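Lecture notes, part 5. Sequence design as translation. It can be helpful to think of inverse folding as translation between two languages: the language of shapes and the language of residues. The source text, in structure tokens, appears below.
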């Protein structure tokens, strides 16, 4: 089987890139053909270093919105013709893949999409607390602005947010139509259901990682908690 992974991350661009690379390796060990369509600049970048030739067959510039998507439809068609995928696996790309192109992919092959974080369900990318400090349980949309959770800085920012509202809504409509939507946690599964992803097409598959056969035991009191990730506020380190 030929599986085409679509990602906007380079070979050394963090957790998602590592995740996609390991999936490709496992698929190849199982006898499948795995390749990647990278949503990156046309010119090679530092993040492309280490990509094997068969993993970097195609590049496509990042897209967002409708006009850019229509402009790149022919290039996508050329890339899909080169790969001839049996399955396309999209790794979110919510701000870098136009809904126009996602629709085009759906017409070419069955599409699986993995949601790696809460970006599709929150304009602030956090989904943690409302302005009152309560846990956010709202469906992402106009209510995020009317309640003051999202506050445009000026008129230009308001127009940018309005555009984002329409593009994100179109992207979510495309995600609801995917053959499968994969999430790594029950929390993200709940958000996907809340935002209209059909339960019959939703699957929870945790991100796996190799661990030692016999991990060392720790009996610290209180327990020692280790965080591995970027020290960025939207990742919630301050909440932990």
């Amino acid at each position: 089987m030929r599986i085409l992974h679509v990602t906007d991350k380079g070979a050394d661009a963090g957790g998602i890139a590592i995740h996609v690379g390991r999936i490709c390796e496992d698929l190849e060990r199982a006898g499948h053909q795995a390749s990647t369509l990278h949503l990156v600049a046309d010119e090679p970048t530092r993040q492309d270093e280490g990509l094997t030739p068969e993993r970097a067959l195609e590049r496509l510039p990042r897209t967002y919105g409708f006009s850019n998507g229509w402009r790149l439809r022919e290039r996508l068609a050329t890339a899909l013709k080169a790969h001839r995928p049996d399955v396309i696996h999209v790794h979110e790309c919510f701000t870098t893949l136009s809904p126009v192109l996602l629709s085009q992919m759906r017409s070419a092959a069955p599409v699986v999409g993995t949601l790696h974080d809460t970006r599709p369900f929150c304009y602030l990318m956090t989904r943690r607390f409302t302005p009152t400090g309560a846990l956010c349980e709202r469906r992402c949309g106009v209510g995020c602005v009317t309640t003051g959770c999202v506050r445009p800085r000026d008129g230009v920012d308001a127009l940018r947010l309005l555009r984002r509202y329409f593009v994100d809504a179109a992207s979510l409509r495309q995600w609801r139509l995917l053959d499968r939507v994969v999430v790594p946690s029950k929390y993200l599964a709940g958000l996907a259901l809340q935002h209209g992803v059909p339960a019959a097409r939703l699957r929870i598959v945790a991100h796996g990682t190799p661990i030692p056969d016999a991990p060392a035991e720790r009996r610290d009191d209180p327990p020692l908690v280790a965080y591995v990730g970027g020290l960025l506020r939207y990742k919630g380190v301050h909440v932990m």
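The translated text above is only one of many valid answers, since several sequences can fold into similar shapes. The longest helix spans residues 155-176.
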